[in-house]
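Q: I'm writing a short explainer about SMc04008-like domain-containing protein for a general audience and would like to include a description of its predicted shape. Could you first generate the structure from this sequence?
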Amino acid sequence: MSAFNELDQTTRTELEAAAFRRLLRHLDDNKDVQNIDLMILADFCRNCLSKWMVSAAEERGESLELEAAREYVYGMPYSEWKANHQAKAIPEQLAALEARQAKKQSQE
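A: Of course. Here's the predicted structure. Afterward I'll give you a sentence or two in plain language.
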C-alpha cells in the first residue's frame, strides 16, 4: 500500500474531503459534545471549522459567508443549534477553557 503523500492530488483531496464529511457527521451524531469541551480538549470547535471554511474559500478567491459555513457545519442554522443543543457553560468549563487559553498564550 502506498504512502498517503504518494497518492495523486485528486485522490488525496477526495480522501481529505471524505474524512471531513465524516467528522461533521460524527459531530452531528454527538450533539451532546459541547463546543466548549472541544475547545478545552482539542483547541477547536464547530465554530472554528466554520471559520476555517470561510478562510479556505477566501484563499481561493471565493466568497463564503460565515453563517452559510456554520449552517453547513452544524447541519442547521447556528441559532437553531444553539437554542436546541448548546448548554450553558458551567464554571468548571469556563475555568478549564481559561486555563487552556492561558497555557497556549504562554507557549507563543
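A: For your explainer, you could say: The mean pLDDT is 95.
Q: Perfect, that's easy to follow.
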